[in-house]
């Protein structure tokens, strides 16, 4: 865990450039910005573009322009993950040398067939845990497409990760049973999100990760990776989700509209309401200043964001 007594506060907003900011992603951006500003820290923006097939050309510049229009300005030039391959390769090499990684040529279909044969039907919208099919294999051909997976315990010795979220409180996950061994590099050669985010958070000295609640189940995977790489674990705060008309998380995949920027104050107010910030002001700059003070109160010990400081 980050040593809060010695480490200056560093936060980050890390959007994927698959489209412009919408109401849900603005909530996460604003919360991260407020959390850093309320403690006099540094706020960074990182473009998470390792999943290149999903990236929309120009979306990164659109996102940066939206943030600027709302007055959410980073304290350093943005970083693009697509430039960071060498750092991810170095981290992977360390894990390989430790015996933490193995080759896997399982397809999604093969994994689904495994669980179907066990009589299990994964919950809707949830990925089936990896059953460890290739964990003990020595015949995966390195010359053919294959993923590289990180060992996450075994059924005989499960890996359980516990942490305290600053909003949600104490959390725990049986990583072995609920997720299985995680992918670090995909079969198509692309870097997996989990490895990239852990390496970059450590390199940028991020002390506080503030992001949407839909990413909370990624936290134990990242904590496990941090431990295996000998990296510090940031504090985590997962914000409330903005739901669409169908009751599911508002996202680009279900047609979420871009944030309306003709009235920045209205956009900020709407995002603040999701965070429970009752702030009123005549203009966007005044609203941001008042919201920083309101966030500081909410994040103080005993406040709704004060579980872990």
Automatic annotation (TrEMBL):
InterPro entries: Glu-Q_tRNA(Asp)_Synthase, Glu/Gln-tRNA-synth, Glu/Gln-tRNA-synth_Ib_cat-dom, GluQ/Sye, Rossmann-like_a/b/a_fold. Keywords: Aminoacyl-tRNA synthetase, ATP-binding, Ligase, Metal-binding, Nucleotide-binding, Protein biosynthesis, Zinc. Coiled coil: none annotated. A motif ('HIGH' region) lies at residues 15-25. GO terms for molecular function: ATP binding; glutamate-tRNA ligase activity; zinc ion binding. ATP binds at residue 252. Its EC number is 6.1.1.-. GO terms for cellular component: cytosol. A motif ('KMSKS' region) lies at residues 249-253. PANTHER family: GLUTAMATE--TRNA LIGASE (PTHR43311), GLUTAMYL-Q TRNA(ASP) SYNTHETASE (PTHR43311:SF1). NCBIfam families: PRK05710.1-2, PRK05710.1-3, PRK05710.1-4, queuosine_YadB. HAMAP family: Glu_Q_tRNA_synth. Catalyzes the tRNA-independent activation of glutamate in presence of ATP and the subsequent transfer of glutamate onto a tRNA(Asp). Glutamate is transferred on the 2-amino-5-(4,5-dihydroxy-2-cyclopenten-1-yl) moiety of the queuosine in the wobble position of the QUC anticodon. Belongs to the class-I aminoacyl-tRNA synthetase family. GluQ subfamily. This is Glutamyl-Q tRNA(Asp) synthetase. It comes from Piscinibacter sakaiensis. The gene is gluQ.
């Amino acid at each position: 865990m980050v040593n809060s007594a010695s480490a200056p506060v560093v936060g980050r907003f890390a959007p994927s450039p698959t489209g412009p900011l919408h109401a849900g992603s603005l909530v996460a951006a604003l919360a991260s910005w407020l959390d850093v500003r309320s403690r006099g820290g540094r706020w960074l923006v990182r473009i998470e573009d390792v999943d290149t097939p999903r990236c929309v050309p120009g979306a990164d510049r659109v996102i940066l322009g939206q943030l600027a229009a709302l007055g959410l300005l980073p304290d350093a030039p943005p970083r693009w993950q697509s430039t960071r391959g060498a750092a991810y390769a170095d981290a992977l090499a360390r894990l390989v040398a430790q015996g933490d990684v193995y080759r896997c040529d399982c397809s999604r279909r093969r994994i689904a067939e495994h669980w179907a044969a066990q009589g299990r039907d994964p919950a809707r919208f949830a990925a089936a845990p990896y059953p460890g099919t290739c964990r003990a294999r020595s015949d995966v051909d390195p010359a053919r497409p294959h993923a590289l997976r990180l060992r996450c315990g075994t059924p005989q010795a499960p890996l359980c990760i516990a942490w305290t979220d600053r909003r949600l409180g104490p959390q725990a996950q049986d990583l072995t049973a609920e997720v299985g061994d995680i992918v670090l590099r995909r079969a198509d050669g692309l870097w997996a999100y989990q490895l990239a985010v852990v390496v970059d958070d450590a390199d940028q000295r991020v002390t506080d990760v503030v992001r949407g609640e839909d990413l909370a189940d990624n936290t134990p995977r990242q904590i496990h990776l941090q431990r295996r790489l000998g990296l510090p674990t940031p504090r985590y705060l997962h914000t409330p989700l903005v739901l669409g008309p169908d009751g599911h998380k508002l996202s680009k995949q279900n047609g979420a509209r871009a944030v309306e920027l003709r009235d920045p104050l209205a956009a900020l107010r709407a995002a603040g309401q999701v965070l429970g910030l009752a702030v009123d002001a005549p203009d966007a700059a005044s609203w941001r200043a008042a919201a920083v003070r309101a966030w500081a109160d909410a994040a103080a010990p005993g406040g709704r964001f004060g579980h872990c400081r």
